[in-house]
Design brief:
By secondary structure, the protein is α/β, with parallel strands linked by helices. It contains 9 helices and 8 strands. The two termini are about 15 Å apart. This is HAD-IIIA family hydrolase.
Length: about 210
């Protein structure tokens, strides 16, 4: 039986940089209208600092730290794109592994993966919006393992965040590979649940898992 690899989506398969920039700009426009003057660059620096402190909810933390009593602007997926080379990596891995997704994502994840042309590589797709459970809750990992009909030791998890990806997947018994992309690259490694491997690009999996 093939071993499984589960992937996070945002900043693992999908580059969210432009969506973050749009989100930061929209946040600053709203803040400015309330008399709180912050530039998108300053806002990004605050978010990066929250990541460096391993804050578990960095976007929420920064918004609350500004003493704002209105909801922050909603996230948009419109400007997200696949990281370069993702389809090719998934195609090669799928020949020797069963692939799946466990991700904190809004509604419509499967459709977005279809639009990217990669949905067909995944035998199991678990999105927080669909199951009503978010990482780092171990239940979302348990549900994926149940659907795959495997034990944790038969699975590898690949993600960018220490708090949502590496720690819970290690806790449940998976091997965990951290990809240092996006804001998650600012996270400090957990001493208790360290990554089994760290990569900077998804293509490195082809050598590591050959």
């Amino acid at each position: 039986m093939k071993e499984w690899i589960f992937f996070d989506v945002g900043e693992t398969l999908v580059n969210e940089y432009n969506s973050y920039e749009e989100h930061f700009t929209n946040c600053c426009l709203l803040l400015n209208s309330l008399g709180i003057y912050v530039t998108p660059k300053e806002y990004r620096e605050k978010i990066e600092s929250a990541y460096k402190e391993n804050n578990t909810r960095p976007l929420h933390h920064v918004w609350q730290s500004l003493n704002v009593f209105v909801e922050k602007p909603k996230w948009s997926h419109d400007n997200e794109v696949l990281y370069s080379g993702v389809p090719e990596v998934l195609d090669k891995l799928s020949k020797n592994y069963s692939l799946g997704v466990i991700a904190n994502q809004g509604e419509g994840l499967t459709e977005r993966l279809k639009e990217y042309g990669i949905e067909h590589y995944f035998k199991v797709i678990i999105s927080s919006a669909d199951v009503g459970i978010k990482k780092p809750n171990l239940e979302i990992f348990e549900q994926a393992l149940l659907e795959a009909n495997i034990s944790p030791k038969e699975a590898i998890y690949v993600g960018d965040r220490v708090d949502n990806d590496i720690i819970p997947s290690k806790k449940i018994g998976m091997r965990a590979i951290r990809i240092k992309q996006g804001l998650g690259k600012f996270h400090k490694e957990s001493e208790t649940y360290p990554s089994d491997m760290i990569i900077n690009d998804l293509s490195e999996l082809l050598c590591l898992l050959d």
